[in-house]
Design brief:
3% of the residues lie in helices and 47% in strands. By secondary structure, it is mainly beta. The strands form 2 sheets. A 6-stranded mixed beta sheet has the order 2-10-9-4-5-6, with no helix packed on it. Strands 1-3-8-7 form a 4-stranded antiparallel beta sheet, with no helix packed on it. The radius of gyration is 13 Å and the shape is globular.
Length: 116
């Protein structure tokens, strides 16, 4: 069972918005609430990079280039993590991955493509 499943990616024009979701599977329910969750992305030819993180207590931090445009949130009751992405730019294009803290629990990613 894949521990984390992302959804919500797609093709959007520059300036548009998308909301990504990350569903936490039953196998790691028990540790979800006490762990930070994060979003990463990987553009073609580039290394995977950190985008946003939210602690178990709700504190957040972001990649500088997405500050003020992206918002990470979590719903512990629904075992979900979200990434609201606004004012999207072509350079935001990539595969977006959900990760539990600094663990080896990753999702398989969802593609985000922003056209100019």
């Amino acid at each position: 069972q894949v521990p984390l499943v992302e959804s919500g990616g797609g093709l959007v024009q520059a300036g548009g918005s998308l909301r990504l979701s990350c569903a936490v599977s039953g196998s790691i329910f028990s540790i979800f609430r006490v762990n930070a969750m994060a979003w990463y992305r990987q553009a073609p030819g580039n290394q995977r990079e950190f985008v946003a993180r939210i602690t178990s207590g709700g504190m957040t931090n972001y990649l500088d280039s997405v500050k003020g445009r992206f918002i990470i949130s979590r719903d512990n009751a629904k075992n979900m993590v979200y990434l609201q992405m606004n004012s999207l730019k072509p350079e935001d294009t990539g595969v977006y991955y959900c990760r539990m803290g600094d663990s080896d629990y990753w999702g398989r990613g969802t593609q985000v493509t922003v056209s100019s």
